[in-house]
Write a structure and sequence with these properties.
The structure is a homodimer.
Chain A lengths: L10 H11 L3 E3 L6 E3 L1 H20 L3 E2 L5 E3 H4 L3 H7 L5 E4 L2 E3 L7 E3 L4 E8 L4 H11 L8 E10 L13 E11 L2 H21 L6 E4 L11 E8 L5 E11 L1 H5 L3 E3 L5 E3 L1 E8 L1 H10 L16 E5 L3 H21 L4 E3 L7 H11 L3 E5 L1 H6 L1 E6 L5 E5 L3 H25 L2 E3 L3 H10 L3 E5 L4 H11 L2 E6 L7 E2 L6 E2 L2 E5 L3
Parallel strand pairs in A: 3-9, 17-18, 17-19, 22-23
Antiparallel strand pairs in A: 1-2, 4-8, 5-8, 6-7, 9-10, 10-16, 11-12, 11-24, 12-13, 13-16, 14-15, 19-20, 20-21, 23-27, 24-27, 25-26
Helix pairs in contact in A: 2-6, 9-12
Keywords (chains A, B): Aminoacyl-tRNA synthetase, ATP-binding, Cytoplasm, Ligase, Nucleotide-binding, Protein biosynthesis
GO molecular function, one term (chains A, B): proline-tRNA ligase activity
GO cellular component, one term (chains A, B): cytoplasm
Chain lengths: 491, 491
């Protein structure tokens, strides 16, 4: 197996190679669209199931709305339409026919042109709020707390596996509320759900914050986000939750009679995370040997590799291995016993390192004599010998330790890559030499934000929710500012 | 709540009303596409989870392939392309722009025309086999046992909720094998998985059979199917499993080196079930009061309705109800305690009947005195009084009984609606007066099948797999035949 390009050599190349070599995903025959391979999909399924559980726990239900948005609905909320118009896949025809000039080939049938074009959903506010119009008459019909797992399409010119693809999988929550306050609380609650999921399940530390107006979702009054930091010092937006005000209710005329008997427009939120999280997962934890997965997300948590010569030894080791496997499975731990005889242990070690299996257990003839096994941790690459007795309990605890250690490592990296700067010179220097989040004052205008972006490629990732107030002056214009914001180059 | 149209009055109207009133689905603002509402989606989720479990149990893994199929890939397998060309949604552009003549409106940007049109997948053989080409070199790469949960689009002119919609949700398995025999065994295995799922989870009795050549999936060498019978005597194809031979391997040049070192084309299967199963579920079990759900599929299995006057009574009943609820939940049974004070018990009874909640428990002040509860079964509308002590155990057993009874009832209906006929006159009479499956001889030609279809609207649903051989003569041409086939009008 050819070695991975190292992160130090070429971080971007390392990422692309890793995604493909670890069998997570690959480019497809369709421009900008990926194939999510079984191993990658198994990780996504774990993420999906855990998020779904959290959504239901907070009172949400799933539903499914159409893939297509008629153009007239799409353009109803102007800012939203403007924000997505440039990256829309558009269905114009509904039939193919035989090409009279090329037997065996097909052409679009010009007689099957749609009266109204259909947009392949880049996001579903329009189709959903045009539906909610019929569902909402009274405050008794509220709140509506719906989530959808779906595919969406945003025509991207420069795509990268998981991080930016023309089609991606995601969940989008769309809720309707009777009051402004309730809608704001919902968007904040879902941000907390995302942050909790990212930190405690994906082991990715995140900053909770608010986007500046220029970085807001098209059609939102406020966008909340969680921002993670990758190992190359670039930030990645890992989830967003939007307070949409009454913008979509007004665009689609969704009114209700409130408790006081007055007619008003409904209040909205939407919130989403996508397969982009796979990119965050990979780039937060992995190393030059391959994937590092927190145990909660690993399709295989423990692999047992027998070290043997000849069938008799394999048979003896298998007995012990199968017993350990059964005990671990009884604890809900997923275990693979790799008794394949074609590949050597060394090959297997490399393969499971590449795939990010958190714990590898090797059992050889000496181990049988001594009543021990060798346990290797993927995250820190340490090895140790442990007694076979109660090794299942030991591993159960070890997986918890690994989950925590993986998070701690990422958090230490993140915490040591937040740099306070007070001058633009310093800003550029830190951005160039160290990367990471840069905490600096900003004058609150689109202009300064834009200038910094144009000159440095750094954007304001967010205004952290737990920000301390601090008097200061902004980087370029020197205007007074009351708090620092987080800048970074970003994916 | 206005009553449902009865089945006897107008079966089709009954179905449409029921789907909407029971909050399962509704038509959307997009022609032919439906909105699957939360209650309907919760049922679909249960079906999906159980099927997914069965697929994994039989060694399959999930993956995800692109929504779009470039035209050149779509047309590669000619029969498949021909079969779906007439119902394809086609993406031709990737951008909208402001309409210069109508401020606030958008038009398709003529400068953003795709070089090659993209077909929204009506099924994924083409995109998947063009991918498998890169995955398969040696017999060691086989079998590939992949399933995908996805949305697909087939442009239908006459649509009906769940039964026939332009977009629907489904799963599609796509497997690749080293030998013809293994691929045939896979397609037969998956038919068995579907039949087991339909009968033991959905409580829908099905006939396992083979489609005639004219009813085969476009591109298949053999199509296996499960056929169910609805209460109006029409059949519904509930799942299909296709042996695709080497057709797609040849179209996409997927070759491998076999164990003997020779190059050959891979063998394929595909198999699918869809949200159409929701239609089968509704039409198999439901009655004039609303949905009837087998307990395995019911989002709420038990509802507890308090019968009370005043807050004090409600409080006393609540104590008992919450205790029962907790005990049932501990047994993995989903329970709703409906302590809403706005709606009267009678309204609630009708509502939960409409929604198909299998067991309703009513608790009133008399019950508290007597230490009893009233238990009503949704499936047969019977009521009984039971002691509160151990009522959780009683209900656990009752749910199993209901699951079995719902199946038995459907099976009795089905079994009494399979009629053997030996003349075309009798065939038409039975079809007209009784409906159901008609078991008759056929001469094996497309022509006779076509004539019967044109004259009676009945099609050959399948040649049952467990068919007894029997000499006979066919309905129209009088040619000799060795076995009967099943005809029916179908959804």
């Amino acid at each position: 197996m050819a070695k991975l390009t190292t992160r130090a050599e070429d971080y971007s190349k390392w990422y692309n190679e890793l995604v493909v070599k670890a069998d997570l995903a690959e480019n497809s025959g369709v421009r900008g669209c990926m194939v999510i391979k079984p191993y990658g999909y198994a990780i996504w399924e774990k993420m999906r199931d855990e998020m779904d559980r959290k959504f239901k726990e907070t009172g949400h239900v799933n539903a499914y709305f159409p893939l297509f948005v008629p153009k007239s609905l799409f353009e109803a909320e102007e800012k939203n339409a403007e924000g997505f118009a440039k990256e829309c896949a558009v269905v114009t025809h509904y039939r193919l026919k035989n090409d009279p000039d090329n037997p065996g080939k097909l052409i679009v049938d010009p007689n099957a042109k749609l009266e109204e074009e259909l947009i392949v959903r880049p996001t579903s506010e329009a189709i959903i709020w045009s539906t909610y119009k019929n569902w909402i008459q009274s405050y008794r019909d509220l709140p509506i707390l719906i989530n959808q797992w779906a595919n969406v399409v945003r025509w991207e010119m420069r795509t990268r596996l998981f991080l930016r693809t023309a089609e991606f999988l995601w969940q989008e929550g769309h809720t309707a509320h009777a009051t402004r306050q309730e809608a704001i609380e919902e968007s904040e609650q879902m941000l907390d759900v995302y942050a909790d999921f990212a930190e405690n399940f994906m082991a990715i530390p995140v900053v909770r914050g608010i986007k500046t107006p220029s970085e807001r979702f098209a059609g939102a009054d406020e966008t909340y986000c969680i921002e993670a930091l990758m190992q190359d010092g670039k930030a990645l937006q890992a989830g967003t939750s939007h307070f949409l005000g009454q913008n979509f209710a007004k665009a689609f005329d969704v009114k209700f009679t409130n408790k006081e008997g007055k007619i008003e427009y409904a209040w909205a939120t939407s919130w989403g995370t996508s397969t982009r999280l796979m990119g965050a997962l990979i780039m937060t934890h992995s190393d030059d040997h391959g994937l590092v997965l927190p145990p909660s997300l690993a399709p295989i948590q423990v692999v047992i590799v027998p070290i043997f010569k000849g069938e008799e030894q394999l048979e003896q080791i298998s007995k012990v291995a199968l017993d350990i496997q059964a005990k671990l499975k009884a604890k809900g731990i997923s275990v693979k016993f790799d008794n394949d005889t074609q590949n050597k242990p060394g090959w297997k070690f490399a393969e499971y390192e590449l795939k990010g299996v958190p714990v590898r257990m090797a059992i050889g003839p000496k181990d049988l004599e001594n009543g021990t096994v060798e346990i290797a941790r993927r995250d820190n690459l340490t090895k140790e010998v442990q007694p076979i007795d109660n090794v299942d309990t030991y591993i159960e605890e070890l997986l918890k330790t690994i989950q925590q250690d993986v998070f701690n490592k990422a958090k230490t990296y993140r915490d040591t890559h937040v740099t306070k700067v007070d001058t633009y010179e310093e800003f550029k220097k830190v951005l160039e030499e160290k990367g990471g989040f840069i905490s600096a004052h900003w004058d609150g205008t689109d202009e300064e934000e834009e200038q910094i972006k144009n000159e440095t490629k750094a954007t304001i990732r967010c205004i952290p929710l737990d920000n301390e107030m601090e008097e200061g002056v902004s980087l370029i214009t020197g205007k007074p500012s009351k708090q620092r914001v987080l800048f970074a180059k970003a994916y």
